[in-house]
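It would be a great kindness if you could assist me with a short task in structural biology. The matter concerns a single protein, recorded as an amino acid sequence and a row of backbone structure tokens. The record follows directly beneath this note:
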Amino acid sequence: MIAALLFVLFMGLMLVGVPVGVALAAAGTVAIGLANFDVQWWGLLAVPQNFYASLAKYPLLAVPMFVLVGSIFDRSGVAQRLVNFAVSIVGRGPGMLPLVAIAVAIFLGGISGSGPANAAAVGGVMIAAMARAGYPRAFSASVVAGGAATDILIPPSVAFIIYSILVPQATVPALFAAGMFPGLIAGLALMVPAVWLARKHGMGALERDLPRPPFWRSLAEASWGLAAPVLILGGMRLGWFTPTEAAVVAVFYGLFIGMVIHRSIGVRDLYIIFREAAELSAVILMVVALAGVFAWSLSTLSVIDPVVHAIEASGLNEWVIMALIIAILMVLGMFLDGISIFLIFVPLLLPIAALFQWDLVWFGVILTMMVAVGQFTPPLAVNLMVACRIARVPMEHAFPWVTWLVVAMMAALLVVILWPAVATWLPERLGYL
């Protein structure tokens, strides 16, 4: 009864508009209180204890740092220089600018761990450029939102850090390595419909008339940005710093580029950058802390074991179970942000993964790819919301274009599901598994 009340209360609070974190904590607190009502009232002390325990984890220090990195590179002018460099390589022509937008979003994923920050950085440059070349703004916003979703797969990734905290067996370095190839495959999959749609509908007719940046000059201007992922990921691989320390290194490197090299960030801009990063980080960490209460109530009330036993007794094939998980996450991704999905459902799904002996690093990549799909799947679609705001178009105008990109991302997901080595080969090769 109490377990059922836990979920009913959570869903009810969500439906009336209560923020996700508050709904999680309120439902968990009520369930813990009822479970201890006949024993001792101070059982409720588990609430503040779990609130603190959820935040007192060293890897979480990387979250505000990587969010800050996204804000810094958004304002440093790195995205514009990367775009010029990419255009100098692929040239001009119908469908080339959407390809460049996705390629630059993938590359920036190796610097920032935040999808919305990536969408803002790429969208601020590419949407206007694509509009000048004759691309509809709704289409441009869709392409930017889809490309930015690869951010949480390409290391470093805030989503992988959260997953590693929930699943200690999956380390941050292993997850970062595992996300590399799936992220690249997802990006390539998104390029196919983006270029095809542009050419089918005659978009970008004016693109041939735009000048092509000179290669060597573009390379020189983009070199500092190109070096960022090498520094961050290479430093972690060589053991110079941990993933958490890498986030701090990335912050200072970004500030050096923006304030010293490109001089696009002034002292007065720092307050705005720090404020934006603090606000977003506070939202993420508050949800993490409040969800800890909900997760503890799940384990205390023994909600998970009966679910696992029911699945085991059902006799369903593991691929059927995987398909059901994908379908459920697809629906949830339309209404919940990725961090909330992880915090609510990873504790429920881990015993199922253990039942079928799924590799937890591979399983984490699968869940993260579904979260990436949710970042540009309406109605929540945080990346699409940011891109449409930059493009100054209603989100519903982007729906026809986004549908094709969602299909492409799901095709990339299918590749990772059918061939787990796509995710596990690199971490095994590097000795993380």
Residues 59-287+303-429 form one domain. The chain has one domain: 59-287+303-429. Residues 267-300 form the longest helix (34 residues). The mean pLDDT is 81.
